Amino acid sequence: MGAVALLTAIPGNAHAAGPSFSATTAIGTHNAYEKSKYAYLAQALDSGASLLELDVYADPLTRRWRVSHSNPLGNDNNCEAAKAPGELYGKSRDQDLGSCLDNIAAWHQLHPDHRPIVFKLEMKIGFNNTLGLGPAAFDTLVAQKLGSIVYKPSDLLGGTYSSLDAAARAGAWPSRDDLTGKVIFELIPGTVEQANPFDHYWTDQEYGDHLRDRYTAGTIASAQAFPAVLGAAPGDPRTSRYDASIRPWFVFFDGDAATYVNQGYDTSFYAENHYILIATDAAAVSPPISSTSPTDDEVAARLSLLAGHHASVITSDWAAKSPAVLGAVAPRG
Predict the structure, then answer these.
(1) How many distinct structural domains can be found in the chain?
(2) Which pLDDT belongs to residue 6?
(3) What does DSSP assign to residue 255?
(4) CATH code, 121
(5) Alpha helices of the chain — where are they, by DSSP H?
(6) Sequence-separated contacts (24+) of 147-151 with Cβ below 8 Å
(7) Distance between CA 77 and CA 94 in Å, rounded?
(8) Taking the CB of the first residue and of the last residue of the chain, which one, N or C, has fewer CB atoms within 10 A?
(9) For residue 223, is it within any domain?
């Protein structure tokens, strides 16, 4: 792995002062809930990856959160009916989001000093407040299942800043070491939601409004997730997508790695303001490498390249790689 100056190979157990969460670049796994990638979600958690992605549907029939790639009415995933550490790696799978969170909680009990892990949730058809599956219901579920292990927007605010943007620009992110044992939720609008001509109020805007309103009401501590601005774009994409009242509530940005690099976008904007930049489909950046089974050196070189382009997390379908590879963390350029 000589192609990149690693900070650590398998993060999570050191407690000395280290770099800020926003000053590092790590590796994540696309659609980590798929059984073809990991037989059980606990194995995805074992993988060393710093980001794991789940696709979530608000099921209008059962009024529950489903986890699946393309079936909004059923579960198709590696989350199992396991709530205790001793139940992991063997229970029935294809469970709902609540069970996925149960698995995370049980795994955390086995590994309380684990690396910080971002859970990227693509809300495939968005929220549905009418059915009781809106942002507040999501917050309640996550809080009930995971409690204090979630690093929340209010934690970044720290009782000091009036918006997430102000906190990020002030460098308020804790170090990776201080995030030991923590999980962070990122929310993005889903492909079905974006293709729906009757839906003009997507996950990002809805949760941004939610954060603004929670802060105004003095209840921001109940919010459990960070909404992301989706799609690679030049400059600050918030200015053309959101009204001024919610722009300061976006500090996560999520877009195609090849677009950022090949279009020559100035991504220093994200690092200078300490924003979190998720660069997806990292394998497709020129020169392309395997999206499933690159060599260890290729992964290291790709991590180094995209760290230089100011990514915070790069993602691909490299689930088969070892924890020593997926757990790599580099200085952000």
Answers:
(1) 1
(2) 62
(3) E
(4) 3.20.20.190
(5) 41-46, 97-110, 135-146, 153-157, 164-169, 191-195, 203-217, 238-241, 257-262, 268-272, 296-308, 323-326
(6) 149/105, 149/108, 149/181, 149/182, 149/183, 150/182, 150/183, 150/184, 150/185, 150/224, 151/116, 151/179, 151/182, 151/183, 151/184
(7) 5
(8) C
(9) yes
* Whether residue 38 has pLDDT greater than 80: yes
Cα three-residue angle 183-115-68, rounded to 5 degrees: 50
Per-residue tokens: 24: 């590092």
Q: Alpha helix locations (H) across 71-134?
A: 97-110
The CA distance from 195 to 199, in Å, is 8
* CA atoms lying within 13 Å on the CB side of residue 56: 30
Could you give phi then psi for residue 229, rounded to 5 degrees? -80, 120
**How does DSSP classify residue 54?**
E
Query: What does the block give as tokens for 187?
Result: 């929310």
Domain that holds residue 29: 21-73+114-331
> Which pLDDT value is given to residue 73?
87
Task: Please check whether residue 10 lies inside any domain of the structure.
Answer: no
| 92: pLDDT strictly greater than 50 | yes
pLDDT at 12 over 50: no
Quickly list DSSP for 177-200: GGGTT-EEEEEEE-HHHHH-TT--
Q: Is residue 56 part of a domain?
A: yes
Q: Whose structure tokens read 């029935």?
A: 92
* Predicted confidence band of residue 7 (pLDDT cuts 50, 70, 90): low
> For residue 317, is it within any domain?
yes
Quick check: 5 and 329 in contact, CB under 8 A? Answer: no
Q: For 282-325, write each residue's pLDDT tens digit.
A: 999 999 999 999 999 999 999 999 999 999 999 999 999 999 99
Tokens matching residue 329: 């963390």
What mean pLDDT comes out for the span 24-36? 98
What residues pair up with 28 in beta bridges, in sequence order?
A: 51, 315
Tokens 């059962």 locate to 62
Q: What is the pLDDT of residues 144-164, one digit of tens each?
A: 999 999 999 999 999 999 999
| pLDDT for position 9 | 41
